[in-house]
TrEMBL record:
<keyword id="KW-0732">Signal</keyword>
<dbReference type="GO" id="GO:0008113">
    <property type="term" value="F:peptide-methionine (S)-S-oxide reductase activity"/>
</dbReference>
<feature type="domain" description="Peptide methionine sulphoxide reductase MsrA">
    <location>
        <begin position="43"/>
        <end position="192"/>
    </location>
</feature>
<comment type="function">
    <text>Has an important function as a repair enzyme for proteins that have been inactivated by oxidation. Catalyzes the reversible oxidation-reduction of methionine sulfoxide in proteins to methionine.</text>
</comment>
<feature type="signal peptide">
    <location>
        <begin position="1"/>
        <end position="23"/>
    </location>
</feature>
<keyword id="KW-0560">Oxidoreductase</keyword>
<dbReference type="Pfam" id="PF01625">
    <property type="entry name" value="PMSR"/>
</dbReference>
<dbReference type="InterPro" id="IPR036509">
    <property type="entry name" value="Met_Sox_Rdtase_MsrA_sf"/>
</dbReference>
<feature type="active site">
    <location>
        <position position="49"/>
    </location>
</feature>
<comment type="similarity">
    <text>Belongs to the MsrA Met sulfoxide reductase family.</text>
</comment>
<dbReference type="InterPro" id="IPR002569">
    <property type="entry name" value="Met_Sox_Rdtase_MsrA_dom"/>
</dbReference>
<protein>
    <recommendedName>
        <fullName>Peptide methionine sulfoxide reductase MsrA</fullName>
        <ecNumber>1.8.4.11</ecNumber>
    </recommendedName>
</protein>
């Protein structure tokens, strides 16, 4: 019986520093719908909590917007609560809207691999489960070839064949609830954001300073 209270405290602490531990559906959090510019293309990636991934891609020159959502599963109309069970097949993903005149798909793939640990199966610390797995999505044969070329080079020269990233054709992307969009930017003092998201973003900035928009330095 003496262990019950410490275990409860530990569980609550883990929730506070988990991507799934915060679900605040405030009306004031509703975000305006992004309207792509003419010529804008979209790339899709999943590499852990989408709050982190969204912030990373939005810091890159040529990226106009990154939208959090769900992809990679078979369940129709997934929600944050449903995908949090790990049973829908979907992963937390991000749709990256970019200007191909300013940034290439190849560069975005390098950002993807360079901003998380692609050898981790089903997760990125401190979030684990199939909903946090690493996936590089493609829509065309050319995109698939680009992803596989970069993956194979990294597997051979950096990760010793341990990359666990899935290369998957995009079936459908579901936009996440409004309160998830630009979450890190709007909630800088939230416990998970302070402990996980911001440090991950800063590590990326330090690694790829040449890719950053001026205001993100």
């Amino acid at each position: 019986m003496k262990l019950i209270k410490p275990l409860l405290v530990l569980s609550c602490t883990l929730l506070l520093i988990s991507c799934f531990g915060f679900s605040n559906k405030k009306k004031s959090d509703q975000q305006a719908t992004y309207v792509p510019q003419e010529g804008t293309k979209v790339a899709y990636f999943a590499s852990g909590c989408f709050w982190c991934v969204e912030a990373i891609f939005e810091s890159v020159i040529g990226v106009e917007e990154a939208v959090s959502g769900y992809a990679g599963g078979n369940t129709l109309n997934p929600t944050y609560e449903k995908i949090g069970t790990g049973k829908t097949g979907h992963a937390e993903a991000v749709a990256v809207y970019y200007d191909p005149k300013k940034v290439s798909f190849e560069t975005l793939v390098n950002v993807f691999f360079g901003s998380h640990d692609p050898t981790t199966v089903n997760g990125q610390h401190p979030d684990y489960g199939t909903q946090y797995r690493s996936i590089a999505f493609y829509k065309t044969t050319k995109e698939k070839q680009t992803i596989e070329t970069i993956l194979n080079i990294l597997n051979d020269k950096v990760y010793n064949g341990k990359i666990a990233t899935e290369v998957t054709k995009l079936d459908r992307f579901y936009k996440a609830e409004d309160y998830h969009q630009d979450f890190e930017k709007r909630n800088p003092n939230q416990s998970y954001v302070k402990a996980v998201s911001i440090p991950r973003l800063n590590r990326f900035k330090k690694k790829f300073p040449e890719l950053l928009k001026k205001e993100t330095h």
